[in-house]
């Protein structure tokens, strides 16, 4: 069955405009027409239905969740399953069946026909109502709860609307609900409300209150009601949808407020939405908050300019307050559509499954909402593979006909066909996952099209691991055309992915052609490292002066291999080399390093200098050698070396410094050897630096040096100024001033004398300040001692006399006693102490006096 879709989003417009749009649309390209995904999918109801409609024509149908009921023009009623297979057949009448009605349980069915016959019977019970009227009965509707004994009701419609009710005596009685406005042509019963349409409009009847609550007049009275019948549909228990001609009205049944009742019905109807459609309406059905509309289409032929019956359309529209928005529109090629009229089409639906049945005399088409599998089908058809893959991943539990892997493989193939090799290779990671067989298959496919380089960055390297041949194949591809890419793969890929010896041999073969290629040499060194052939790797790294050489040595403990390569390492990076050698003295001795560097004294100095910085004593045997090395290559560090070293021979150092005329170093060595006067003389004569001479004299703190300095400076006015400015705190300035010749001009003499006086005043102030502090502290301590000595001392039975060692207190408290206690806390009986002489009446502690602890004078004498 052919379905042509129109793009959604177009507004509902008039019929006149549609003919122009339809003509333009036919000229569009099919790809453009179907760019938007359809909302519904369609299939013919076949099996038994096909057999029925070959000999008969469908006149009506009703749908239950469990089965279908189809009425024909030859008066037959067929019960069908959802696949269209016939389960039961009823011969009701020799003429057309007008309508079939089922209750909600699906156990009772009502049928009416063109010859006036009405039957209501149980499908699984023997109860039956049978009546033949004298006019055609167009409609019938049984109570939705007909299965209940209290709801044995149904309505029929011909020239009037009759309500049939079974009384308590099991007799049927009828009552007229409406008549006089032409034939009743449509009826729908929902809950307690019955809606029907006649030639004048639509009425709603409340079966509970027995009141008619509204009348919705028909809009276009020019249309014949028998040719363009009204379509009714209950969306829920209070919402009725009316479609008639090209008009759609959505009505809501509401409760009337008690204050507004009076003589009015308890309910009223409000039209919440009303709009015009493009075509004549043949059926309506709700779909969530949208509407499904079956439309009868007439178009004008361009050749004959006559109207003809076009394919019916099934539209999904979004109702708005005064208009609507078209969501989708499909033209259906049903059998015999060229001969059908508006009244020949019917739209039935199953609420539980969102199935829509388009019924025509020669065909029954089922429309259903597209599921995720259908969505994926459409995406694949449009070659939107990435979206299809994403949709499958999101809904993988719900899809039944598709597999994520199949979609992914199709996506990869599509990308390869387009030439997007890098994207295709990148997608392999996600799609192929851990399937090693699929990975290998895809690699060979990329090899066939010459795109192994594209897939190489994305090959799995751990889980899973492919056959070594796969990795070797890619490495050979790079080795033939891209050395840098080859080197990158060797760095990134673990060495156990491929046969290392095979790749090593391949690299060596290439090096025969280009022996100085640094990229290949570096890569070969890495391969040797993977193969644990560290000696060859180290040799290449050293040749290339590669920064990883030190890391390689440390990582694989190659110190035994570098004993004869120390000079190469030092030439490459002396700082890193020295640090490494010093950190591993236990593996390469200091002696070995010094011997290896014997012919390269500048490198030898770098090594020994850093050794000395780390430990002043480890390389003491080389300190004599270092004097010459410092003098030759690093004079700024010679003086610090001489100061810090306690092992270098001073005579040798002095000899070298004198030979090279290193004054500062010579001065230091002379002073260290005790020849301070020669050192001072050298400062004065060679450096002519009075400040340094003064500083040197201060350091030595020798009066004779100051005398020599004064004698040397006495005839040099600038030196005298320097001495006057600095000598005041070490030597009496009068000694210098008395020796200055009269008439000698001394620069800045006034300022120097002022500074001497200021320094003297400062010294006097410091002394006075110190004296005040000393006096204050002494007085404070004296007061503290006095307070301490004035405190009482506890004497009890445990204290003893330090002389006789007997208890200090008598056992008989009544006897008189005398005790002497000294500040040192030693206690004596008075009679145990020597009698003081007239020359020295003060008493002192015998113990403390003997130990020279001080006088220990008595602080308390107890008597009784």
Automatic annotation (TrEMBL):
Domain RING-type positions: 801-849
GO BP field: cellular response to starvation; endosomal vesicle fusion; endosome to lysosome transport; late endosome to lysosome transport; macroautophagy; protein targeting to vacuole
Keyword Ligase tagged: no
Gene Ontology cellular-component annotations: AP-3 adaptor complex; clathrin complex; clathrin-coated vesicle; cytosol; early endosome membrane; Golgi apparatus; HOPS complex; late endosome
Family listed: Belongs to the VPS41 family.
Function: Plays a role in vesicle-mediated protein trafficking to lysosomal compartments including the endocytic membrane transport pathways.
Protein name: Vacuolar protein sorting-associated protein 41 homolog
Species of provenance: Equus caballus (Horse)
